[in-house]
Amino acid sequence: MLSQIPVMGSPIAPEAVLSGGIDVGIKKRMADVVLNAARSKGATYADCRIGRYLNQYVITRENKVENLVNTESYGMGIRVIANGCWGFAATDKLDNDSIAKATAQAVAIAKENSRLLSEPVKLLPQKGYGEVSWKTPIERNAFEVPVKEKVDLLLSVNDAAMKAGANYVNSLLFLVNEQKYFASTDGSYIDQDIHRIWPVFGATKIDAKSGKFETRQSLSSPRGMGYEYLMPRESDKIKGTPTVLYRDRYDMIEDARAAAAQADQKLKAKSVEPGKYDLILDPSHLWLTIHESVGHPTELDRVLGYEANFAGTSFLTLDKWESKKFQFGSKNVNVVADKLQPGSLGAVGYDDEGVKTKQWDIIKDGVLVNYQSIRDQGHIIGLNESQGCCYADNWSSVQFQRMPNISLQAGKAPLKPMDMIKNVEKGIYIIGDSSFSIDQQRYNFQFSGQLYYEIKNGKIVGMLNDVAYQSNTQEFWNSCSAVCDQSDYRLGGSFFDGKGQPMQSSAVSHGSSTARFNGVNIINTARKI
Amino acid sequence: MAILTEEQARALLKKALSYSKAEQCEVNLSGGDSSNIRYARNSVSTSGGISRNSLVVSSAFGKKLGTATINEFDDASLEKAVRRSEELAQLAPENPEFMPFLGPQNYGAPTPTFVSATADITPKQRADMVQQSLQVAKDSNLTAAGFLESSAGFSAIMNSKGLFAYNTATDINFSVTMRTADGKGSGYATKGFNDVNKMDALAFSKVAAKKASGSVNTKALEPGKYTVILEPAAGIVLLEQLYGSLDARSADEGRSFLSKPGGKTRLGEKLVDERVNIYSDPANPELPTSRWNGDGRVQEKVSWIEKGVVKNLSYSRYWAEKKGVKAIPGPDGIIMEGGTQSLEDLIKGTEKGILVTRLWYIRPVDPQTLLYTGLTRDGTFYIENGQIKFPVKNFRFNESPVIMLNNLEALGKTERTVSGESSQNALIPPMKIRDFTFSSLSDAV
Fold it and tell me: Do B396 and A118 count as a contact with CB atoms less than 8 A apart?
């Protein structure tokens, strides 16, 4: 499930963010203390993650900087198997005595809890990589961009929206840098430096007379990139659509100007007539439908019941996968899992249990062909090696299965969004994400967007409001009648995919081109209170 | 670092403040230990123990503010944190909404948020509780997945204007989902307390087991408007959207369900049924909360909705000063008054209706009307002539808590429950509501 934007970690001074952290050699020595202590206490496997998690938030509204926050979280998480059972302990004291004590605690927890075990943990084999490293390929480190430059950008965004008629505008720049060092008894010592960026705004227009208000949120997406994402480039703009859409570079000021005008149009838009419509879904919207209705039900831990108490289970049970003919979607539906796509949130060199990342098919020609899994579950679906989907959101969190990028592949025949619309008799073109909700087995969902355009006889005739679509996952994906070509392919995503207890957030991207779904049920969401 | 006593915390904060050269300086110190066991497929899965502490230093020059933190507490580290916050303050742009730090406050007697028995819980005690829960599942041929977490912590604040506050708290939270072997039935129970001695994992697991066994072979009812009985764990997830949105500024700015045409708000107006009374009270023995909030403001008893009327809204200190009103912090530890009827009494008094155990994936649809969507889950039953007749397929709803509380039929006895969405605890009664809007069916179990 996706949550709202929380502010995580503790604030620190800006210059502290730029210091390089501790030397790899020292981290290796600390890790060896843990691995040796774990072995001597009787652990059959151990790994440790030394993490330094940096965030920066620039938070503004209208012409004011509300807050400037730098946070840092530094510590170590230790995971062991003893008596066949997992144990975990985390500490922010990194002297040798404290980490040895935490290791002993992890082993003691594993041993105490082993009486609650029905069968011992079985790990897929993993070779040690020795000492290796990986870094997000960024052009400009956003943490090194002067604070003033970032503040000035957001205030310009706000100014553009206000000048275009917004009554209020909030904007936020959210930066993440995960510096993590992983070591395990398999013989891996992996140093990774991961960067993410997410600029967002919301422009609100109020009609004082009627007391009504509408907000249009930004059409940006969170990316595994540096500050270059915020440096506009004409070749990354898609024009000719009702609003400009963005590929790998985002023009935040241009989008804010458009947003203010569109918030006003939303106030005056026609309330939708409920019924069946053909939907044309832009990637800025479709990523979230993919996330909820394809990403989550193909997580193997959910299928097996590990998430039954919170995030839920899945309708994509093992028998459907074993049959090799479960028609999840139409022939147009090809979905790939990966942790490799440049600029995506899922891209890393190695996962959080030391597995090199890869790409594989999930849905092939509409048929369910695979899941997403990690080392302690892969044997259940006959894998010989892990798919590399293990992640922990902090040094203090235990790693577990998290969603890789899950993306709908572009159509092979040339097709652009506006050409797709030409063949629609009665439809709605939806841009941007908004409300989202799906049941705990991923059958029934309801989604809304930022912008809804009514299509009549192949033409956009105006804007609609109060729109939400409800469908059943299998029915919806089988109604997918066309997907635009690669030139329209874009990534959406979130920093805040929530799962697990205690809940952890994971960042994930979902790529797609604009896609068409026939005869989807639209409800009208207007109410009076 | 173990939980510091009030005197230890005071001494450490005093030392940190002694390094300050700013016009104003405020230091927050917090820390604690938490431990958990997670289980699924009738077996333990992940579990662990986490220890964390943090010192936050905020320095201000005029309307310029800077903050820095550290988690080492020797003299040099304390001074370094203070210097860093001062440097950042000098770099930060001026914020016209910055408010000077508060002076000394009178917080009154401490509330019973800390229970030693919870702080002293051992790994064996936690494992024993989970073992009881697993035994219920095995005895009933069900599959259990659950989570048990205990924590103990402290927090303290001090500033250069003489303010000081200190608090300790413990929590234990438990939730369990039991499913039938064929996956056709599912039941849920959740509870949270400050005192581990109140946590009866065995009894709550039995409730979940009974719901699981009773919810197989569901019948599908047509979506539409139904009378529902929302158990507290179901009601809280919609109610928290209402009491979490009682913010004055967004109402005054015209972008809240509490806004009215012409810049007016619904403060002081009747919003919901007159039997609805919602307040917060740090001293409530069933749900004690801290006497102070994050910026040092006093948390006292506040009535939010009284006899259906919006009585108070929360204010930031800036907005309160601008409006010339008291800066009431947002609600912490919500209590909704109930009646004397048990859940069973409410069922007995229902001719036709639906009993809802849990609501899930609650998301806003329209902020103008506070419309939310979500689904029923883990135990949904049809009631006829005062009796539970059969389990029904789960529904998606589209409903506003404002509309819901206008369609109130009856309230049961208030009890402490936990939100499955926010993990917040509150005292909420079971509620009987007419014309609750179910918009479609879900195949999910």
Answer: no
